């Protein structure tokens, strides 16, 4: 009797664990960003905060990258953890033109919560961390890192 229950128990456990994984993340506009949408693209993950002066300098550079590199994905993370309407208001106030997600995105990727702002992570097409950049970055510094092989 035990051998009959064990496969059922294992199948139930596998189902429950799979159900715990996020299917995606919701950005400041209510759009879903999924793993499938990111797979195969270089991803720039940038931690910022409204009170961070260097972040304000850097965000236009990231907006430009998002526009100039349609095959890359640029994602912002509000360091202060705003969600919903607060996140939308903050991203609009900062002039952000790319998707902004919650901390759960970065945590699901194993990215450390930064001690310095801004901090930018560059991920490869499989989601593996390639580069960690501290402090404000410029377009010309990040653009070469978005090319495959860098």
CATH homologous superfamily caption:
Glutaredoxin
Strand order of the largest sheet: 5-4-3-6-7
Per the CATH scheme, the topology name is Glutaredoxin
Work out the strand percent.
Answer: 15-25%
Number of DSSP E strands: 7
Low-confidence stretches: 6-19
Shape: globular
**Structural class based on helices, strands and sheet pairing:** alpha/beta
Report helical residue fraction: 25-40%
How many separate domains?
Answer: 1
- Count of helix runs: 6
* Name given to the CATH architecture: 3-Layer(aba) Sandwich
Q: Overall pLDDT, averaged?
A: 86
The radius of gyration is 18 Å
The main β sheet shows up as: 5 strands, mixed
Q: What's the CATH first level?
A: Alpha Beta
Secondary-structure element order, N to C: HEEHEHEHEHEEH
Distance between the amino and carboxyl termini: 56 Å
Description:
- The protein is of the alpha/beta class and 150 residues long.
- The protein has a single domain, classed as 3-Layer(aba) Sandwich (Glutaredoxin), CATH 3.40.30.
- The protein contains six helices and seven strands; from the N terminus they run H-E-E-H-E-H-E-H-E-H-E-E-H.
- The protein has a five-stranded mixed sheet. A two-stranded antiparallel ribbon has the order 1-2.
- Strand 6 and strand 7 form a beta hairpin.
- The protein is globular, with a radius of gyration of 18 Å.
- The protein starts with a helix and ends in an 8-residue tail after the last helix.
- The relative contact order is 0.19.
């Amino acid at each position: 009797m035990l051998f009959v229950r064990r496969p059922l128990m294992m199948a139930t456990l596998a189902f429950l664990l799979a159900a715990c994984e996020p299917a995606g993340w919701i950005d400041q506009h209510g759009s879903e960003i999924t793993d499938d949408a990111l797979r195969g693209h270089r991803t720039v993950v940038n931690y910022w905060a409204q009170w961070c002066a260097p972040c304000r300098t850097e965000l236009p550079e990231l907006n430009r990258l998002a526009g100039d590199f349609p095959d890359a994905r640029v994602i912002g993370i509000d360091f202060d953890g705003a969600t919903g309407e607060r996140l939308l208001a903050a991203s609009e106030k900062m002039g952000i033109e790319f998707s902004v997600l919650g901390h759960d995105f970065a945590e699901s990727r194993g990215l450390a919560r930064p001690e310095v702002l801004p901090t930018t992570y560059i991920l490869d097409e499989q989601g593996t961390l390639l580069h960690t950049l501290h402090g404000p970055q410029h377009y010309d510094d990040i653009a070469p890192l978005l090319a495959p092989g860098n």
